[in-house]
Amino acid sequence: MKRLGRGRPIAMTTPGSAVTGPRPWVTYAVIALLSTIWGSTYFVIRAGLEDLPPFTGATVRFCLACGLMAGLARVLAGREGGGRPTTTMSLIMGLFNFGVGYGVVYWAETILPSGLVSVLWAVFPMMMAVSTHWFLPGERLHLRQWGGFLVGFCGVALLFATDLANLGPRAIPAGLVLLLSPAASAVAHTYIKRNGAAVSSLLLNRNGMAIGALALAAMAVLRERDAPVQWTAQAVGSVVYLAVVGTTLTFGLYFWVLRHTPAYRLSVISYLTPVLALTVGAVAGGEPVGLPTIAGVAMITSGVGLVMIKRKPATS
C-alpha cells in the first residue's frame, strides 16, 4: 500500500494481480501526468476559494468524488480483490485522511499561497516514515534517514522564518495548523498499512470519502452557515476538476500503474508535485517565489529523498 502525496487515495496491490503491464514509456507518461495534475490541484483549490468557503467547497468535491468512486468500486472491486474495510478503518480513513487532511489544506489556502501550501505538505513522506518507525517494527529508520528528516525540518524552519514571516501575522499560525494535515494523513495511512493489507482499496476509499464528506459538511454547517456562496463558472469548474480529474482519474491511473511498476519508481511524484505546484502558483497566480523559497524546497525534497532510501538487506 502506498501513498506518495496529498490528493492520492490509498491504493493497495493484491496477490494475483495481472503481470502484464504497460510499456515503459506509458508508465513514465502516467507518472508525468499524475505529477502535473497533483501539482495543479493546489492552485485550483485556491481559485475555487474565491467564490466558495473552504469547507463547503471541500464537501461538494468529495460528495461528487464519492459518487464516482462508488460507481468505480461497483465495476472494478471484484477484479481488484480484497475484503470490505472494517468500520474503524473506514472512520480513520475518512476522519483523518479526508476530513482533517483536506479540510486543513482548504482552510490554509485562504491565508497562504497555494505553492507554499504544497511545499509544506511535501513533508508527508517524512512524517509517514517516522510514524511507521514507531508503529511498524519492520520499517525502522536508520541514521541516514534520520539525517534526511533533520534536513527536511531545516527546510521547513527556513520557510517559516522567511516566506511565512513576510506574509503577515496570520501566516505562521496558519502554517503550523497546516502541518496537522500531513500528520493526520500519516496516522491514517500507518493504521491502514498495519491492518489493511487484505482490504479492497476501492471500497476503503469510497467509504473514506463518504465519511470525510460528512465531516467536512459538519464543519461547513458550524462555521460557514452565513458565509456567501457563489456558484460561478470558476467555482463549478474548480469542484468538478478536483473531484473528477484530481481525485477519481488520478486514483484510477495510480492504482493501475502501481500494480505493474516498482513503488520506488513512483516516488518521483513526491519530488515533482511541490515543484510543479510552486511553478503553477507563480505563473498562473503571481505568487511570490524567492531564493529562500527555492532553498526551502530543495532542503525538503532532499530530506524526503534521504528518508525514503531503504537500507538494503544484508547478503550472506
Jot down its keywords:
single chain, disordered N terminus, mainly alpha, disordered C terminus, 0% strand
Describe this structure in words.
With 316 residues, the protein is mainly α. The protein has one domain. It is 73% helix and 0% strand. The chain is built from 13 helices and no strands. The model is unreliable at 1-5, 11-19 and 311-316 (pLDDT under 50).
Low-pLDDT ranges: 1-5, 11-19, 311-316
Mean pLDDT: 86
The geometry reads as globular
* Structural class label: mainly alpha
Please work out how many helical segments DSSP would assign: 13
DSSP, total strands:
0
What fraction, in percent, of the residue positions are helical? Answer: over 70%
| Amount of beta strand | under 5%
Work out the count of structural domains.
Answer: 1
Spatial extent as radius of gyration: 19 Å
Order of secondary-structure elements: HHHHHHHHHHHHH
Main sheet properties: none
Report how far the terminal alpha carbons are from each other: 29 Å
